[in-house]
Amino acid sequence: MQIGPYRLSSPVILAPMAGVTDLPFRRLCRQFGAGLAVSEMMAAKPALQATRKSMLRRDHRGEPGPISVQIVGADPREMAEAARRNAGLGADIIDINMGCPAKKVCNVAAGSALLRDEKLVASILEAVVQAVPVPVTLKIRTGWDSASRNAVTIGKIAESAGIRALTVHGRTRACGFAGAAEYSTITEVKNAIGIPVIANGDVDSPGKAEAVLRSTGADAVMIGRGAWGRPWLLREIAARLKDGRQPLPPTLDEIRRTVLGHLEALYSFYGEVQGVRIARKHIGWYAARIPGLDDRPVRGIFSLDNAPQQLSAVDALLKFQFEKTAA
């Protein structure tokens, strides 16, 4: 999988997810075999650049390259300036968000709402590509709704504008995340354009990734919600795609070290108060992946607001569960 001058180490890419793909999670997923990990979306609006949230999202300390930063907005000039700003701060790849279905994004005509205005799509893509010397990629959905699937048209516009790779989520904006993703539209896009195409949507196992690539002809897969509480999924998919083997699952000790290391990275990155709060959702996701785990002690961990206590409680819970499993 090649994006401009960058040859990715694997055709497995971590999707940009607001509130999830922060620096600690991106670094973790790269360690587990992601060839690329795309940042949380960065708002293009100049007034939002000085917020703590934006500054944290611009932090790439210790992040292996290539670094991909996603930007979101609806004004070509603001998007071009956002691309220049992030390229100047270390982004090796700029990704444009035209796939987010969230109401707060679509209500300002950004994200997947842009798919309804193909002329504006072209203007934004051309402005961003011309603004920066780094490769620009695009993430879209299949269309606004089932009556207006225009991913093939958008793909052709993107290729003409100089976009270097296109990710297609196999749902319309109207679908949100409901129902099953469909891949026939991704196949149509791949057959219609010459730039790399990345398939996204419901890829949650090595077998599913292999099947999606085979059916669509896509060049890579993008993993989103499947990686919640299971970053080692990226390693398992990469191994399957490389030589067809079914990799061994992580050992219990590796899971424990991964979870505790992730929590410590969150505390360090955000500070104790915010780090503990953000860690709760990750603890819930990790816990949901452990068969037979009683959720009552997990709910008790959610009430802790002290980092050492939270870390110690998670460690104790994992040790108890793993010892019970071994017995």
Structural overview:
The chain is an alpha/beta fold and 327 residues long. 46% of the residues lie in helices and 13% in strands. It is built from 13 helices and eleven strands. The strands form two sheets. The chain has a nine-stranded parallel sheet with strand order 4-3-11-10-9-8-7-6-5. α8 packs across α9 and α11 packs antiparallel against α12. The model has no long low-confidence stretch (mean pLDDT 92).
Q: Which structural traits does this protein have?
A:
two-stranded antiparallel ribbon; 46% helix; 327 residues; alpha/beta; nine-stranded parallel beta sheet
Using the CA coordinates, give the radius of gyration. 20 Å
The largest sheet has its strands arranged as 4-3-11-10-9-8-7-6-5
Strand segment tally: 11
Work out the helicity level: 40-55%
Beta-strand share of residues: 5-15%
User: Which oligomerization state do the chains in this entry correspond to?
Assistant: single chain
SS-derived structural category: alpha/beta
